[in-house]
Structure formats: C-alpha cells, structure tokens
Amino acid sequence: MGDHHKNLLCVCVKRDSMSTSQSATSSEKLTVPPNLTDPGWQYGDKKGPSTVVCRLCGKKTSGGISRLKKHIAHVKGDITPCPNSTEEMKRVIREYLVASEKKKSKKPARYVSTKRRKRSSSEDPSSSSDGIEFDSLPQVRHTRKLRNAGKKLDTDIFESFLEDLWSKISVEKRMSCAYFDSLWFSLYKKDHTRAKVLQWIKDKNVFSRNYTFVPIVCWNHWSLLILCHFGEIDCLRTRSPCMLLLDSLLGAEPKRLEPDIRKFVFDVFESEGRKESRKCISDIPLLIPKVPQQRNGDECGSYVLYFIYRFVESAPSNFTQQGYPYFLTEEWFTEDDFDNFSKEIETFSMSKKKSVSQEMDATKRSSPSPVQCEIHTGNNIIEID
Questions:
Q1: Which domains, ranges and CATH numbers included, belong to the chain?
Q2: Where are the stretches annotated Disordered (predicted)?
C-alpha cells in the first residue's frame, strides 16, 4: 500500500479544524472504506443506491462516490466544494481521478458481441459505482444498419470510431463528459427495452458529469442531444441546466423530437429517485442552435461525431444560457475541417471492414468442411450437408 493510502486510513477529523457544519462535532478517526482501491470512500458514507454523505461537512451528494470525490477535490463542475477538505486530501483524490482516466484511456478499443454486452449491463451496480471508471456506458452491440441509408454510418462503425476518438481526447477534458451508446435512445422508445435502458443509466451515474452526449438515430437521420449540468437541478436557477439539440439538417424539423426527449429526461430522473418536480424538469430549456449544415443526405452521422469532438474541445466548465450560443453557430467550423474529419472516418471504416473480413476468412479456413450424408429410403436418396 502506498504512503498516501496509509495516510488516508489514518486521517482524523478534529473538532477545531472544522466549520460549524453538520459534522463539526465529530472527532473520531475515519473508518476503513469498503473499497480500499478507491480513496473516496474514506470520506463518505453510502446512504442509498446513488446517495453518499460527506463525512467532512455532512453534504448529501447524488451520483455516487464519483461526485463525492469531485466535492472533496474541489473539481470544477456541478457540485459545490467541501469547505473542510485539506490540500492533502484534494491532492490525493485528484491524483486518483487522473490515474483512473489514464488507465481507462490505455485500454484497447472493445468490439464485443451483443451477448457479452448484455451480460455486462446486468452486473451488480455496486461493483462499479464510480462513474470515473466509465467514459462510455454499457453498450448494446447490435450490428444494425439504417435501412435505405446508402452511405450513412451504421451504428457499429459509429460506436467503434467514437470509442477510438474518445481515447484520443485529453484526460482532463474527458473527466467532465460521458456518452450513450447510439442505440440507447431508440431502445428507450420501445416498451420492452425501456426499463433496461433506464437501469443502465442509473447504474452508471452518468449525470455526475457536466455533459452527457446522447446520439439519436430516428427516421433514418442522426442528431445529437447534449444534457448540460444535470447533476444538481436548481429550480432557483443559481445553476442553469439545459439541453442542446444539434442537428446538421434543420429542415428535418428536430423540434419534433422534443416530446420524446422530455419524457426520456423525466423517466431518468424518476428512476434515480430524484426529488425534482415534474414542473421543474419540464422547465429545463431545450435549445436548438444553428450549427453547420450537411451538404448531402449521407453526412449526418459524421456530423454528430464531429459535433461531439468539437464540443468536448471547446465547452466551458459551466454552460449557461447567459452568453448562449457561445461557439455554437453556423461558423463553428469550416467545410474543410469537416472534410478532413470525414476522411478519417472513411479510412477507419475501411480498415475495420477489412479486419472483420479477414477474421471471417480465417474462421472459414479453420472450420471443418461439411460432411455429406446420404439417407437411403427405398429408391429415394436425401442428401444432407
């Protein structure tokens, strides 16, 4: 065990070092956390599926141990800093957060089967309650192509490229963001898979991040929903959560998605046991900025990927309506910028398809040849391959 972990286990909360908060009367030594690999539990007590109480100041945080660590470490975002955390505590927690992100970024891209993904999504949520460990969330790996989509991206190439792209974004920028699998919104709209999608979202505490990207595939068209600062909804508007809907084809009338989007957001809050009223949630603004537009009917998926990349690179730590639309204008990026990005997607797609084809050929060569059998029934012969 490293020296900083030894120090963590011996931290004492002294009465004279605290403010007049709820925990100011506590002078007992902090107990050993339930998960020694995560120093965040040294400072928090779990009070519910996603609620943790800070031992230093008594603040209740939703979003699991991930948001508590941001609270302790004074990470800028959607949670207030702990007034009683020391510089040493902040240093240790920040080092752990950065190390977790770097460890995640070193993992190779995962192209896994539908069956494997379904198993992972049903695991015990308590086995990994820290959202920092998951940049992307459990995915449903159907290889589903858009019908009559021509050269549009299918969801498999989209997910593979996004995972590769995500690994190249700096750790510091990724720490405040998360993204959904591109099929989740479609699956949510189906009665028989809605509950499962809501459970996946609840298990992973995605709203502990400042920005959550929700790719939407609907009516053979891609668009991007961004949920901004949903960790703590403040009806008094001291913080300003909002939703952004980016569409490279405004002629497709993206506003018609609003009823489904608002129902989705309300169901997510309800499934997590949040206390916000229906009116408070319904008052969250849905903004549709005028972003660069596609030039043909096949580019929408590539635009969504580029929207995600450019937004992560440019987004402020606190996106509010004051100053909106910020960088989200028709001049956000040039056609040349997008064309260069599209070439990267095309190269990636060709490489992956070639790799898959080679794997299939290798499988065929290693498989035994079919054995021909003949069943004689009188004068008739039935051949079976």
A1: 3-103 (no CATH), 107-349 (3.40.395.10)
A2: 22-44, 107-134
